[in-house]
Known about the structure:
This protein has 224 residues and is an alpha/beta fold. The protein is 33% helix and 28% strand.
Amino acid sequence: xxxxxxxxxxxxxxxxxxxxxxxxxxxxxxxxxxxxxxxxxxxxxxxxxxxxxxxxxxxxxxxxxxxxxxxxxxxxxxxxxxxxxxxxxxxxxxxxxxxxxxxxxxxxxxxxxxxxxxxxxxxxxxxxxxxxxxxxxxxxxxxxxxxxxxxxxxxxxxxxxxxxxxxxxxxxxxxxxxxxxxxxxxxxxxxxxxxxxxxxxxxxxxxxxxxxxxxxxxxxxxxx
Length: 224
Ligand code: ADP
Ligand code: MG
């Protein structure tokens, strides 16, 4: 079984009149339930690869499959739907909305989902804030939470949509190493209990060691 398949993907960016080859002939197959680290130094192409898998950006050449679906063949509406139902995102800078409480931040993306009732939304919000250990911080705003707590809210937000895959771009880069390890530990627990596939990027060796599989990128090329 395969949940993500990246086939001979290239990504070029134009920078002035120069072409930057951010990814060069990258292929990757990910089995469901993996806890996969993409390791590589700054500028190697980690964010570019995660954005392509997350259907936030499109390859210059090559194909990306999520489950059986070739995402390059889908309409913008279908892609938005796939993203909302199948993918969850966790970012380096947390990306919480500052005027919303922790609970409202978790609930917010669910408002787009016509298939989820208000009652279900509130139940999921409560449940996933509890899963990340923040049941008592529902009404706190991001500036009333620590970095680690903010990232826990972001993880609850990513989980609430019930995604098969969570993509996390350097989720621990803005945290001290102990907090970073506990965030990775939480992700690993969720990976095991909910069978959610995690793909995360990092350049921290201690964090990499917690993965069950590591692939490396250097200058836009992938090696296992
Ligand atoms: P990483 O996440 O590993 O630090 P990125 O995927 O962000 O690496 O970047 C890979 C390469 O692509 C770098 O050389 C970066 O400068 C370049 N790059 C990324 N995004 C853009 C962009 N929007 N325009 C031009 N170049 C970009
Ligand atoms: Mg990056």
